[in-house]
Amino acid sequence: MPPSKDKQIEVETRRTELLRIRRRRPKVPFGDPEILALGYTSEDSARKDFYRMLETRRKALDIEVSAYREEQNEILDQLLETHLPPAVAGDIKSSELCLKLLERQAKLNGWEEALKAELSGPNGGPMRVSGATLAELRNLIRAAGDPDDDDDTLEDLEGTDPDDEADDDGDHT
């Protein structure tokens, strides 16, 4: 049986006050008398309630953000439907507007976010960076394996000079 409306209001009031205290004093321990005075029986119950509240607020915020994105995407789609035909027909102003709209849509949806990658040394520690000879780089590539089997192998490329390749017109001068 779900809690009564009065109980729900009491819990929400207690959680709001707990959040207010934690915002005012972020390092306050959950066992602090001021927090326990809100009606918590232990430090653990205050901590659990705090994290439940944060999760509930995070989910509500995610829903609001999703609704905002959806609404903005609909507006941008309508604008693109209106201005894309003249842009394709060669109208410079419409082309610039469509480009701005597409950039806005990409930013809104996070399509332009950079891929984050981490390069670390042995056992996840820092990587030593220094100059390397061509032979050391080749050994490193051989040890790691070729990430793209379609490309020429190092042995195929050794001894070739891009300037030695024939021109398209057959003239070898």
Radius of gyration based on Cα positions: 30 Å
SS-derived structural category: mainly alpha
Q: Give the overall average pLDDT.
A: 81
Spans of at least 5 consecutive residues with low confidence:
none
Main sheet properties: none
Individual helix count = 6
Report the count of strand segments: 0
Q: Between the first and last Cα atoms, what is the distance in angstroms?
A: 90 Å
- Percent helix: 55-70%
Work out the oligomeric state of the chains in this entry: single chain
Overall shape? flat
The helix-strand sequence is: HHHHHH
What fraction strand? under 5%
Q: What are the SSEs and their pairings?
A:
Elements: H1 5-24, H2 33-36, H3 43-88, H4 92-109, H5 134-144, H6 154-157
Helix pairs in contact: 3-4
Task: Describe what you observe in this structure.
It is a single chain. With 173 residues, this protein is an all-alpha fold. The chain has helices spanning 5-24, 33-36, 43-88, 92-109, 134-144, 154-157. The mean pLDDT is 81.
Provide keyphrases for this structure.
173 residues, mainly alpha, 6 helices
Summarize, please.
The protein has six helices and no strands. It has helices at residues 5-24, 33-36, 43-88, 92-109, 134-144, 154-157. The mean pLDDT is 81.
